[in-house]
Amino acid sequence: MADTAGESQPVIEESALKFLGYLRTGRNLSANTVASYTRDLAQFFEFLERAGVDDLSSVDHKLLRTFLANQQARGYARATVARRCACLRAFFHHLVESGALESDPATTLSFPVKGRRLPRYLTEREAESLVQEPVADAELARRDRAIIETLYATGIRVGELCGLKLADVDLETGVVRVVGKGDRERVVLAGGPAVNALAIYITDERPVLAARSGYAGDIVFLGKRGSPLDQRQVRRIIQREAADLAAGGSVSPHTFRHTFATHLLAHGADLRSVQELLGHRNVATTQIYTHLTKLEIREAYERSHPRA
């Protein structure tokens, strides 16, 4: 994080460290979110240094708006600037709550993400193709098949997939326990094809992989050398398997999460159930998938109705 000028530098730096610590322990935010907020604050402090501001109590709403405009002018994506806006709101709220500041200049700060693109998801035909076609890596076919089936069947995040432990997967009932963002636990369901793929991998292939490195841990998905898979490796697997699709390059593990939710809603699942399965705190986050299904219905209508 950039140094700031003047005698107030330690105060600014200390305030940031306390805030980030609060995010980790008080709010149990994920390591990725804390890392993003760390970068956001670094950008803000660099801006303060250039503006000659060395005291957080002299920051006002106008200065915060100038910072966001500066970020946009420097070419950052609107979603990134919107997240930095959220970071500043949380940061200054924490400063007031902890007694470090008397008033909050970020109370009404906002930066809407206009023109938000709907997330990419697979059609049912594309999803069926991915789960039916032979996987590219014959040596690790059972593992890669289990990864694809699990992502599509459960809608879990790639980080949650990589963190799955053997005790989390109940092959008898098809219930999978997931530890999501903020260390919140939830239960998701895996259908017959996913359970079968997991059972075959766990029984036949995983022991062979674990033996290669002497791995004695309980992480479900292992790499070729026997150590736990990381998120980057899973993304490469998905991109490789989706390469033959029309939009193969844009398919990621998160695409399966969008696909999972969209297909459930398209087949009559209620929004609250999907919210629970995805692990969303707010149903508003889940509502984007209603836009996807409405779009799909409209496209089907326009393709099929003689007077559309």
Mind explaining what this structure looks like?
- The protein is mostly helical and 308 residues long.
- The chain has 2 domains: 9-97, Tyrosine recombinase, N-terminal domain (DNA polymerase, domain 1), CATH 1.10.150; 124-304, Intergrase catalytic core (hpI Integrase, Chain A).
- It is 57% helix and 4% strand.
- The chain has helices spanning 9-25, 31-51, 61-73, 78-97, 124-132, 141-154, 158-162, 192-213, 231-241, 253-266, 271-278, 283-286, 288-304, and strands spanning 169-170, 175-179, 185-189.
- The protein has a 3-stranded antiparallel sheet.
- The chain starts with 8 loop residues before the first helix and ends with a helix.
- The relative contact order is 0.09.
Mean pLDDT: 87
Identify the overall geometry: globular
**The number of domains:** 2
The total count of helices amounts to 13
Radius of gyration: 23 Å
Main sheet characteristics? 3 strands, antiparallel
CATH superfamily of the largest domain: Intergrase catalytic core
- Give the termini separation: 56 Å
In CATH terms, what is the architecture of the largest domain? Answer: Orthogonal Bundle
The CATH topology of the largest domain is hpI Integrase, Chain A
**Strand arrangement across the biggest beta sheet:** 1-2-3
Query: According to CATH, what is the class of the largest domain?
Result: Mainly Alpha
Binned strand content: under 5%
Secondary-structure element string: HHHHHHHEEEHHHHHH
Query: Regions with pLDDT < 50 over 5+ consecutive residues?
Result: 1-10
For the secondary structure, the number of strands is 3
Helix content: 55-70%
Q: Helix/strand/pairing class, anyone?
A: mainly alpha
